[in-house]
Amino acid sequence: LLIRRTRLLISTTLLRKSSQLISRRGSNAAGLETPKPQPLPPPAMAAYLSMGEAHRRIGGYLDRVADAISSSDGTTLASLLAVSSAPASTPLSDALAAFLDFPRIAADRFPNLSDLFVPLLRTIHSHSLQRYADAYSSFEKAANAFLQEFRNWESPWAMEAMHTVALEIRLLAEKADRELATSGKNPDKLQAAGSFLMKVFGALAVKGPKRIGALYVTCQLFKIYFRLGTVNLCRSVIRSIETARNFDFEDFPVKDKVTYMYYTGRLEVFNENFLVADQKLTYALVHCNSQSKSNMRRILKFLIPVKLSLGVLPKRTLLEKYNLLEYADVVTSLKRGDLRLLRQALDRHEDQFLKSGVYLVLEKLELQVYQRLVKKIYIIQRQKEPAKAHQIKLDVVVKTLKWLEIDMDVDEVECIMACLIYKNLIKGYFAHKSKVLVLSKQDPFPKLNGKPV
């Protein structure tokens, strides 16, 4: 009986508390706040990496590098030296993070190669932590040690690995400079990478089978010099390639020759040597892998302005195929003799053309546009008065330009016509007193035929 009474008392008490809670919630339903969500359980911790496992992974990596060197396996060695192309978190980077005394492993196990292995491991560790300036500094030490070993090897079995080192030091330098610039420090790593690659070039620019790798390093130097804006430094390397008896250009790999012709062609564009630029860029375009649309587009971005300067107009289908429609209005202005359209196109895409370095080249197309404009006037006059078609009054040219919303007086137009005659874009002479341009009756508008204005 006592047990029953106790159970009844407990049940009554629980029922009363439940009723009060329900009543309270019902009366305040409109004003209750949404219950705060319970905090989620902490995420599962990453799998613990034991010191022994970390030691094993680091030792395994070093063993693979040492085996590749001892067996002259250049392909495997090249893949082991690649740092930028590897993901941020790898079994090796995890091991380096867990076992921070990794330099001791390299020094103890491979004392003869410690100058290469210790900074190489530090590079991989710093790169995984996105400390790119530290990664570059370590890799430069490893690269110098590798270059010293490379010089001692008589055969070029490690050429692929040397190319990987050349590529990696440029990519790491670019990342390091971005990091330094963001933190307000002097971005000087890319310049240092250029100095190192000059040492590599010197090691390759010798008689013997190793010279076959010189052009790849040259192209890496070009990329550095163009990024730094020190293209004048390319000249010494170009002279070494094109005048030295050690090199036969046709012996180099096709991909290296295409890259070399692309950059040297760009240099000739900057120097306004359009005939030479046309030859080099055309070579690059013809020998470029047609499946690489992005590389074809890079070449055409500079080849098209060169061709325009030589009087060769591309088809619109070509511009559409390679997404180069910024040149469409420029081509149309040349066909029509529409100076206003040319200037509008240059204004619209000014930033793009300036960044590419072709703005000044395109701006000088104005003379060709003036020639087409005078030719249009000549054709109209020949239809109306065939006998006087070769006599063009400068007032007519002034009115035509005014219709194009370009204000010029007669003296300015006379100066432009004189320039066209001097540049052999028009054959004729001036009747200065009557302000008339007298055109030659035979071929008054000579074609460029691939010759620059």
From TrEMBL:
As one GO molecular function, the record gives: RNA binding
Can you quote a single GO CC term? Answer: transcription export complex 2
Entries under InterPro entries matching the protein: Csn12-like (IPR045114), PCI_dom (IPR000717), WH-like_DNA-bd_sf (IPR036388)
Q: Which GO terms describe its biological process?
A: poly(A)+ mRNA export from nucleus; post-transcriptional tethering of RNA polymerase II gene DNA at nuclear periphery; transcription elongation by RNA polymerase II
Coiled coil feature spans: none
Q: Which Pfam families match?
A: PCI
Q: Which domain of life is it from?
A: Eukaryota
**Where do the PCI domain residues begin and end?**
258-444
Protein known as: PCI domain-containing protein
